[in-house]
Amino acid sequence: MAPEAKWLGLSGFISFLLKYRVVDRIFINCTHCELIKRSYELLKTLAEYGKLNKSLLTIIWNNSQGKHEEIMRATLDILQKLALNLKLDGLKLLFTKVKEIPNENYNEMLVDFLKEYTKSAMLNYARIKREGTGSLITDTMSMFSRKNESVDSQQYFNLDKLWVLTFAS
After folding, report:
1. Per residue in 23-60, pLDDT tens?
2. With pLDDT > 90 as the criterion, what percentage of the chain qualifies?
3. How many domains are contained in the chain?
4. Does residue 129 contact residue 149 with C-beta atoms inside 8 Å?
5. Domain limits for position 153
6. Packing angle between helix 88-100 and helix 108-131, nearest 10 degrees?
7. pLDDT beneath 50, residues of the chain
8. Does 124 map to a domain?
9. How many CA within 13 A on the CB side of residue 87?
10. Is residue 5 part of a domain?
């Protein structure tokens, strides 16, 4: 029998978070505003290591809709901060969720979120395009298709939605 480890490394920590479904526990089972606010560093770690997948992001997003205002605000604050660390598929998923909200359902909180999310997503998108995704195949194909970059970026953020909401009133 192997001796029990005294310390938990980063990969073990990430495995623990996923195995024990910590994100589910925070955003489904125990939606307490302070717990949500304090979960950012855990979520950021998962995002930085590519473990904040579409199903986890959907769980988090669903917590930002139709709940008490403080829970919605705390969740949206985390999502806009996470936009700086998400992979492109995560940005694409979140922006798809944002686009599904009808313009007439936007309030001040959602407009603020959209503004901050757009800034974070644009910064992250620029960083990924500058540094690459880490995948040789994806980065090589991207290098040969730079001419479609403006169309490509609209999958992750789009200033049009922000402009429409800003000047709609």
Report:
1. 999 998 777 889 999 999 999 999 999 999 999 999 99
2. 44
3. 1
4. yes
5. 17-140+147-167
6. 160
7. 147, 151, 169
8. yes
9. 16
10. no
Quote the DSSP letter at residue 29: I
In the prediction, which pLDDT does 151 show? 46
Residues 65, 70: Cα–Cα separation, whole Å:
11
Identify whether the C-beta of residue 79 lies closer than 8 Å to the C-beta of residue 113: yes
| Cα 30 from Cα 110, distance rounded (Å) | 23
Query: How many angstroms separate the Cα of 112 from the Cα of each of 77, 116, 134?
Result: 9, 6, 32
Region of 86 please: left (phi>0), alpha (psi -120 to 50) or beta. Answer: beta
Instruction: Please indicate, yes or no, if residue 102 is contained in any of the structural domains.
Output: yes
- Domain-located, residue 11: no
